[in-house]
Amino acid sequence: MLRALPIIINPPSPLLRFLSFPSASPFPSLSSTLLPPTPYSLSPSSSKTPKFSFASLSIFKTSMTSWLGKLGFGSRTPEASMENSASASIAQGPDDDIPATGQQFLQFGAGCFWGVELAFQRVPGVTKTEVGYSQGFLHNPSYEDVCSGTTNHVEVVRVQYDPKEGSFESLLDVFWARHDPTTLNRQGNDVGTQYRSGIYYYTPEQEKAAMESLEKQQKLLNRKIVTEILPAKKFYRAEEYHQQYLEKGGRFGFKQSAAKGCNDPIRCYG
Question: Which residue, 36, 88, 119, 214, could crosslink 137 as a Cys pair with Cβ 3.0–4.6 Å?
């Protein structure tokens, strides 16, 4: 004769209690908003015997599924998969914007794009700069999307320059001088894949010059350069408040010069 076996649930471990009860966590907002509820609760009259119900287990399962979904895990519907695939296909496509007649585009990633843009604004021959996002898998990303670290975008400056007024080599000189190309996914206190070092070219000639420049730069350093050199992909212009941020005054309202040839120290945040 078969007998039903009792379900035994051990009391929560210290770690689980830390994650499950906001009052025990030094980060209550994190545990209360990100972490799913546990499928049991402790009785007020007893700290040893947890109460259990299949209803609470169902709530736990639903919450866990939702939580994992927000992090990009779990099952996906065919419609969602197709949508994600279409988004990635667009984002990974070439930059189809067209520069002004007789001019060329280049994209550079060298950490936070505010200071990088101002450095390029000052270069003779540069006729236009824009900050934005590129190399990622999400179509039309926001700044918040990129900062989440889940889209693989880089903060880039797209430079438009006139080859008759300034050389590609001068742009590369500014690029190498502006950041540390040996730190992976980091520039100073800014950490994340969006801060990685990269040169994103539009022509074979630009690719060749970039590779030669990297080899030359590597001989000057005792650490390996981690700069990626890749074809330019679709450029997503960042929100308007990011554009020419430091020239407009930055965080503290102190405008910085974008005049050609200016060599004033750049204050990265304003």
Answer: 88
